[in-house]
Hints:
Elements: E1 5-7, E2 14-16, E3 30-31, H1 37-44, E4 54-57, E5 61-64, E6 74-78, E7 81-85, E8 100-105, E9 109-118, E10 132-135, E11 138-141, E12 145-151, H2 164-172, E13 176-184, E14 191-194, H3 201-209, E15 214-220, E16 226-231, E17 239-244, H4 252-265, E18 275-279, H5 284-289, H6 314-323, E19 328-337, E20 343-346, H7 355-371, H8 392-400, E21 404-411, H9 422-438, H10 451-462, E22 489-490, E23 500-501, E24 514-515, E25 528-529, E26 541-543, E27 549-551, H11 574-589
Parallel strand pairs: 7-9, 17-18, 17-19, 19-21
Antiparallel strand pairs: 1-2, 3-6, 4-5, 5-8, 6-7, 8-14, 9-13, 10-11, 10-14, 12-13, 15-16, 16-18, 20-21, 22-23, 24-25, 26-27
Amino acid sequence: MKKLLKTNKDLGNQYLDFTQLFEKKLKQPTINNDSKKELIEQYRQRNFKHEPQPFYESSEIIVYGSFENSNIMAVQQEGNELNILLNGDTNTNGCTQWFYFGILVKQPQQLTFRILNNRRGKSLLKEYNHIRVYDNNKWNCETTKELYYYRTNINHPFYHSQDSSIANLQQNFPLHTLQFNYNFTQNKNIVYFALTMPYTVSNLYHLVYHSSLKHKVLCSTPLGLPIFKLKTKHKTSEVVIILARQHPSESVGSHICEEIIKLLDSGHQVQNKYRCVVFPMLNPDGVFLGNSRCNFNGVDLNRKWDMPNQTTEPEIYNVVKHIKKYKVAFLIDLHGHSKKLNQFLYGCATQIKHISDYMRVKQFSRLLQQGSDLFSYNNCSFSITPDRVSTARVAMWKKFQIANSMTIETSLYGGQKKPFEKEEFNLLAQNILNALFQYNEYQSDPHLYDAQEINQAIKLIKKDGIDDKESGSDSDAEQDIIVTRNPRLKVTSRRDSTPLMVKSKPKQQSETPIQQPTLFFKNEQTYSFKKIPSYQMKRKVSRMNSFQSQIIDEPLSAQLPTIYNIPTKQYKGTLDLIQALQVKSLSRQQ
């Protein structure tokens, strides 16, 4: 890996030179010597005159890449086919997902594009084949033809490098190819291609300085760009914190945040209930550089909220320090999702002692569902897994006891095979503000009292309030980490680099007892079990994780919890149970 890391003399950061991995597949690619130092100075002076700079020109096309938020590293043309490599995030081992570049054709024609080094394996690009194209003065979608997303074949023996260490890396470094065709109908203007509809730092400047909300610069980023804070003028006792754009490739978060700010500008009634404090772009460095996930220092900001470092992630350090000043009722972190459709949220609801606690936490998501068909309640999750404890929603929930601390995810690909446009972003923003205005922690939505929700609450209470449902978050922190695997191919030496097929030996099953934590057992003891084949299992099996299953002695019919002092008896149906719960809940409030 160290052989592939190079230093950018312009900004002083390290980057991964993907051309060495593709030296046999792409024999002589043209490298984009991306220079954005001048553009940073223009940002500081609020003077945006930078024009896209070409870095490749042939008799048929011109390729543009040096502009804000752009990402293209190298290109090789083969007739009407264009092979493209993306830049990895700065100071990382090659995190790639976001792309943004321009093409000017000299004659109308059809071109085939192949983006070869995408790191994200699971994506809805496979099912919903549309990317964003700026042509005829507007951003379009579904104008590309024959879009495919598949595993890049540099791990094939034919493409292995003569260097054994690089050949080894090719086997253990999974990359994916995005291939599509586009028919150019005009040759006067540049046509831009992007993963989603971009939202740049200059868009942010325009929004902030045209908003009627009070704004200030909270701090500066490592590149010297500002972290803006906007707040409403109405002073109320409780505050709603809204965060956006921790991850640069998730531009949908910025589009929704912009619509929220515009609604607050127009005097939305939620300002009479809460004071709104908005941080519209937490990672302007990453957005400016065209990163996919990290800031300039190569840090995933949404994994540093528990113990932020002032040197490497000053953006988060200063925001957390500022949040301490407020009595926060809601913390809403806006993100984008590439594996699911529509909009949904991840909340925090692990410690559930009463059914009323469960309903109170779920109320906001139910209000969002009632307000818009674009919100999917079934995709919501309220679990907290160990790899999410340092995210904004979990760290702020724990540190400042913010009960309604959540991540609102919006699909990069829209809903029902239709991507979200400005109209949908406005509807989603309205729905969030309307749900905030309607929320009342002392009232529970009666629709929550159905059989499925009650059973879920009972399970949580029996597990001491722990929800082990997997969140399925799109925020995988390991996108830029190389995981060592058992190689299928082996290079013997640098001189003789012919790969040889080797067979892996079958793993022997261990008889060592597996220890399980006390959390899942009633009698506060640790039990040991040996692995038992599935066909021999006759008792209830609880799946502890994705690798192993253990037998747990647990009664199949759970008794109704006594928190409402309801006598345990056989009710005729779900309606009787709901009525009894509601009566007891009202009596307790009285």
